[in-house]
Amino acid sequence: IQIVFDRYKASLYRLYNRELRKTPTLQGQVVLRLTIEPDGSVSMCKLESTDMDAPELVQQVVERVRLFDFGAKDVAAVTIVYPIDFLPAA
Length: 90
Known about the structure:
This protein has helices spanning about 1-20, 55-65, and strands spanning about 30-35, 40-50, 80-85. The protein is α+β, with helices and mostly antiparallel strands. It has a three-stranded antiparallel β-sheet with strand order 2-1-3, covered by helices on one side. The longest helix is centred in the N-terminal third of the chain and has 21 residues, at about 1-20.
């Protein structure tokens, strides 16, 4: 799961960097609850919690994670809670 999130990190940070242009001090954590199906698709992804005041960004992140492909595995569907930290590059 970590490997897949790392693979898609650039697309999530593109969304974040776009938001940073509007709000240069924006940083924080988005915690997602998602269900990964045996075929690797994400059947459910929703916001669990966040300390960021950027509802538009959070919604875009949730929608992007729904498109992730974790690859088919011979396992039951799994629901996880996954934190994503957004910090501006130094």
